[in-house]
């Protein structure tokens, strides 16, 4: 199982699609930086192929005023949780 | 469709997602792949998205003599980098076919890309 | 576990540098070993010793240096990517006949082979791009 990290918003970039294409059936995806926009209910459909495996970084949501606006399907983790996700994965792949 | 057995996995997969000339991503990604190969590591290359433009035939030097990456790509075999893959969907989305490519890169469907990424212990994206 | 970080975003242009520092601190706080931070592509600008941000902004270059010194983390800068972008230590500056230098310890200029080595010997390599 790999952890994929995406830092671009699906509103302006195709990077999320590359990540989803490369993801295996157990892989997880963490949204960081501008990527956290993907956690909004209006954009979360871009990740419908990976149900239950979508995470977003709390600190980056907070900085953007988005922390209370995430779709319920997104699991919000802080930076300690980010490290924990990397511990649980065998390796990470970043998409930027 | 390829099976798992014919997916030749190396130790390092370098994914190249940018075309030549516009940025240094392609050149610097290729440099990482060449160095890894020079150190005796088994390296696979996957050209994804805009990155398939790296393989188009007939590339030239850019303005001010900017070298581009085609000469580097021609050296891949010398470095024993023989596993070359290209995202099939990206190729067709640009209206390109295998005949348009300067190297024999094998088109991979989405499922095969997923397996290629899973099969490599280290994946670097550029 | 043994972690390594690959940073490819320039400070003050992209969040990558902040993200990588925050992640590095969290990795260390969870008791892991950070084998090295490797600076590549525009990430080499994190080693610019002349960086002078306004006082009310974090000094990212100093923050990396402090992290490196405090936790004994090598700060490895790709020499080919750095030289092209005007980032030279005193040795490279004199070799190229330049009057000043722009990189100093604890950052060290090194070859790309170090990145490959780092990627393959660490348990986790986490990349922060622009």
TrEMBL record, chain A:
Coiled coil: none
Highest taxon of the lineage: Bacteria
Residue spans crossing the bilayer: none
InterPro entries, alphabetized: DsrEFH-like, Sulphur_relay_TusB/DsrH
GO biological process annotation, one example: tRNA wobble position uridine thiolation
A single cellular component GO annotation: sulfurtransferase complex
Full protein name: tRNA 2-thiouridine synthesizing protein B
Originating species: Halomonas stenophila
UniProtKB/TrEMBL annotation, chain C:
Organism: Halomonas stenophila
Lineage: Bacteria, Pseudomonadati, Pseudomonadota, Gammaproteobacteria, Oceanospirillales
Protein name: tRNA 2-thiouridine synthesizing protein D
SUPFAM superfamilies in UniProt: DsrEFH-like
Biological process per Gene Ontology, one example term: tRNA wobble position uridine thiolation
Family: Belongs to the DsrE/TusD family.
NCBIfam families given in the database record: PRK00207.1 (NF001237), sulf_tusD_dsrE (TIGR03012)
Subcellular location: Cytoplasm
Domain of life: Bacteria
EC number: 2.8.1.-
Keywords assigned: Cytoplasm, Transferase
One MF term in the entry's GO annotations: sulfurtransferase activity
GO CC terms of this entry: sulfurtransferase complex
């Amino acid at each position: 199982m790999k952890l994929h990290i995406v830092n671009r918003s699906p509103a302006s970039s195709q990077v999320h699609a590359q990540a989803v294409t490369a993801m295996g059936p157990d892989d997880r995806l963490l949204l960081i930086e501008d990527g956290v926009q993907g956690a909004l209910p209006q954009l979360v459909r871009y990740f419908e192929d990976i149900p239950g495996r979508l995470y977003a970084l709390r600190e980056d949501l907070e900085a953007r005023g988005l922390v209370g606006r995430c779709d319920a399907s997104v699991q919000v983790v802080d930076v300690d949780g980010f490290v924990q996700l990397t511990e649980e994965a065998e390796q990470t792949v970043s998409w930027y | 469709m390829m099976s798992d057995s014919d997916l030749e996995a190396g130790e390092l997969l370098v994914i190249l997602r940018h075309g030549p000339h516009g940025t240094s991503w392609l050149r610097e990604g290729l440099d990482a792949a060449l160095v890894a190969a020079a150190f005796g590591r088994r390296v696979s290359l996957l050209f994804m998205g805009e990155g398939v433009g790296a393989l188009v035939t007939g590339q030239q030097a850019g303005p001010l003599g900017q070298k581009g990456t085609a000469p580097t790509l021609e050296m891949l075999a010398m470095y024993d980098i023989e596993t070359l893959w290209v995202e099939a969907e990206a190729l067709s989305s640009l209206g390109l076919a295998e005949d348009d490519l300067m190297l024999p890169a094998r088109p991979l469907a989405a499922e095969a890309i997923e397996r290629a990424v899973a099969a490599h212990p280290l994946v670097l994206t550029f | 576990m043994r972690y390594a970080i690959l940073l490819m975003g320039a400070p003050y242009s992209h969040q990558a540098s902040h993200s990588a520092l925050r992640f590095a601190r969290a990795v260390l706080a969870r008791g892991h070993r950070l084998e090295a931070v490797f600076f590549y592509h525009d990430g080499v600008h994190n080693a610019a010793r002349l960086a002078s941000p306004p006082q009310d902004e974090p000094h990212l270059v100093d923050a990396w240096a402090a992290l490196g010194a405090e936790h004994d983390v090598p700060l490895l800068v790709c020499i080919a990517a750095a030289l092209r972008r005007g980032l030279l230590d005193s040795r490279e500056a004199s070799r190229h006949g330049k009057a000043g230098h722009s990189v100093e310890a604890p950052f060290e200029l090194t070859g790309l082979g170090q990145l490959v080595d780092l990627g393959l010997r660490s348990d986790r390599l986490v990349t922060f791009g622009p």
